[in-house]
Design goal:
The chain is built from 6 helices and 5 strands; from the N terminus they run ββαβββααααα. It has 155 residues and is an alpha+beta fold. The chain has 2 domains: 75 residues, Roll (Ubiquitin-like (UB roll)), CATH 3.10.20; 65 residues, Orthogonal Bundle (DNA polymerase, domain 1). β3 and β4 form a beta hairpin. InterPro entries: 2Fe-2S-bd, 2Fe-2S-bd_dom_sf, 2Fe-2S_ferredoxin-like_sf, 2Fe-2S_ferredoxin-type, 2Fe2S_fd_BS, Beta-grasp_dom_sf, Diverse_Oxidoreductases. This is (2Fe-2S)-binding protein. GO terms for molecular function: 2 iron, 2 sulfur cluster binding; metal ion binding; oxidoreductase activity. Keywords: 2Fe-2S, Iron, Iron-sulfur, Metal-binding, Oxidoreductase.
Length: 155
């Protein structure tokens, strides 16, 4: 049994210690915004925040997360979808299929928290998530729009 702090709530998870955090979030807690993509931390669909840092939850075992650490999923970024990144994503029609977008937004939110006005080069270096639809230009534009609107703040 593990106790996790997810989106500000203390949650008990009855999972094997080697269970990836992704599956604890999706299957044990029922928050399905965080996606399974590759299972080897390459695509970024599973990105969540752990103490403010973007992490790939598909390879992080539950046993590596302490009760004191704060996990934020896409559901916890903004309960009403008003985070500047979510607003920019909608305004610019960033996603096509949308599968990668929750992880992409979480990676972008961590970037903006660290660098409120990132350059294109900093965005390219930080956002390593894979989008099969190839919406990278719109992702970059969305990050810039959110930065201009104060993107490091939650909605």
């Amino acid at each position: 049994m593990a106790t996790l702090n997810i989106n500000g709530q203390s949650v008990q998870v009855d999972a094997d210690p080697d269970t990836p955090l992704l599956w604890a979030i999706r299957e044990h807690i029922g928050l399905t915004g965080t996606k399974y993509g590759c299972g080897v931390a390459q695509c970024g669909a599973c990105t969540v925040h752990l103490d403010g840092q973007a992490v790939r939850s598909c390879v992080l075992p539950v046993s590596a997360v302490t009760e004191e650490q704060k996990i934020v999923t896409i559901e916890g970024l903004s309960p009403d979808g008003s985070h500047p990144l979510q607003v920019a994503w909608r305004a610019l029609d960033v996603p096509q299929c949308g599968f990668c977008q929750s992880g992409m937004i979480m990676a972008a939110a961590a970037l903006l928290a660290e660098k409120p006005r990132p350059t294109d080069e900093e965005i390219n270096e930080a956002i390593t998530n894979i989008c099969r639809c190839g919406t990278y230009r719109r992702v970059r534009a969305g990050i810039h729009q959110a930065a201009a609107a104060g993107g490091a703040t939650a909605g």
